[in-house]
Design brief:
The chain has 427 residues and is α/β, with parallel strands linked by helices. The protein contains 12 helices and 17 strands. The structure holds glyoxylic acid and manganese (II) ion (2 copies).
Length: 427
Amino acid sequence: MNDIKNTIPYILSSDFLNVTSKISEELLWARHMVMSEFGSIGGGGVNRQALSVAEFDARKKLLEWANEINLVGYTDAIGNLFLRREGEDKTLPAVMTGSHIDTQPMGGRFDGIYGILAGLEALRAIDVSGIKLNRSIELVVWTNEEGSRFSPGAMGSAIFSGYYNINEVCENKDDQGITLRDALSNLSNKFPELVIRETPSPISCYLEAHIEQGPILENTGVSIGVVTGVQGCRWYTVEVIGETAHAGTTPITHRRDAVREAVECIKALQEVMRDELDILRFTVGRFNVTPGSINSVASRVIFTIDIRHPESTTLEHFSDLVEKTCKSVVLTCEVIVVETLSHSPSSFDQALLNLIGTAANNLELSTMKITSGAFHDAQNLNNISPTGMIFVPCERGISHNPAENAKSEDLANGARVLLLSLLRLAG
Ligand code: GLV
Ligand code: MN
Ligand code: MN
């Protein structure tokens, strides 16, 4: 399975390898368990929505740990949190690593937070080893990766990368009607001590460690996934507008029933979103009814669509069918389709792939190349700097689920590969 072996130009020094012995598997695991208490929903599940109180508490704990190893905290207008270890040459662009701290409403203990805690453990190992590095290293917590509270997902990294402007999203509301702007002002009130960066600090490259969220590494018994890229993704909000009416008195033929026609839309979409190879992903994950009363015909339905495919032409083909299909089946209602997220399929930097493979090989860990089915902040960073991702196995490939699990040994191995790669890039 070592398919990357023998193709690598890098030599990693034994000094660097010694630093990896400072990674503590026990501490890394214990910190995951501490973090899982912020937003715990029991049974291992976590609901830590972006910019919620639970997420602020997790940030506070992270800042405490960062403080112990003298990392300096910064933030920016979208609430990304940067924890910086200064290098010997402060003029050089920093090496950056990180991930996200928010979760799905019924999320687990590892998605996102692993990349943060692996990065923190790598920086702790560097700190205790006393090794001097040329470049600064920044650990970053990207705001609102999941997108389950505020759309779109991967927001903090998209704004950092200049993909869109904060003004385009700050009036977006969560389910309770709270704007992103208000949630961000709660964040700045909570952390007044953090210096706000007006412009992004320059970076030389970006690495992100993550659980695989699929079963391939576990099934093949491989320790490290060297991520070649991420499949493309589009999100849509479909609004079906009808008219509310009395459930007992209004004949079916006189109704403009938003639920009935939204269901027709979904049935028709499921019919056209067919792929014999089973590569296409199509999901309706949210279905909200107004007024949501048992004895009133629905005046409005909003449902969401998530479509993914690794090839951009196929993704485009299926995405183009969304509006057409909905419009073709809606008879008495109005339908409005809005695209809320668009990520093209991405390919990561070949030199970084090679470096991650070399680091794993030097640690005698098996590797394989793998494509990500989930989207990640790394995709946005890939547009502005060389980017790579490291995957570690997760149990039965289960993710976005309270049962999400990983082995502490695998998590520690991923942190060692991340550390060795960071040392090479910053040293
Ligand atoms: C992010 O978690 C995604 O939906 O892929
Ligand atoms: Mn994630
Ligand atoms: Mn996720």
